[in-house]
Amino acid sequence: GMKWGNEAIAGYAQYFHLAAWLLPSVKSIAVLALSSVDGDPVAGICYVGNQSLENLRGFVLAPLLIYLAIGSMFLLAGTVLYTVPAASVVACLFYEQHNRPRWEATHNCPCLRDQQPDQARRPDYAVFMLKYFM
């Protein structure tokens, strides 16, 4: 219904590729245009921010923090989208296993309903619908 199938997503592949390549390309061009690549005096490795703290903060640390935050949000959203339904199913199963002997006893022996009306409860329809939905 939401058109998230493989074919629908594949139709937007060129836009995803554009977004995935555009940001690193712009960052690379900015680093080269500002002559921000410098060498490490100890190891001799060329990198951004070896000599300039501003370049290290602007081109390395800030983007990495942003990417980490965005990735963590997606990870947490995915975890919540899995955890909430799974926890709901587990809770419904605990409800069912806790009450099933009483339900079966009152169903099989109607005399128990008359003798112990407070324990003659019936299964809650909403709990089972929640279990099947989740």
UniProtKB/TrEMBL annotation:
Entry keyword set: Developmental protein, Membrane, Receptor, Transmembrane, Transmembrane helix
Coiled-coil boundaries: none
Annotated TM spans: 64-95
Family assignment from sequence similarity: Belongs to the G-protein coupled receptor Fz/Smo family.
Gene Ontology molecular function, alphabetical: Wnt receptor activity; Wnt-protein binding
Protein name: Frizzled-8
Membrane topology reported for the UniProt record: Multi-pass membrane protein
Xref: Pfam families: Frizzled
GO cellular component, as recorded: plasma membrane
Biological process, per Gene Ontology: canonical Wnt signaling pathway; non-canonical Wnt signaling pathway
Source organism of this protein record: Tauraco erythrolophus
SMART domains recorded: Frizzled
Predominant location category: membrane
Subcellular location: Membrane
Residues of the G-protein coupled receptors family 2 profile domain: 1-78
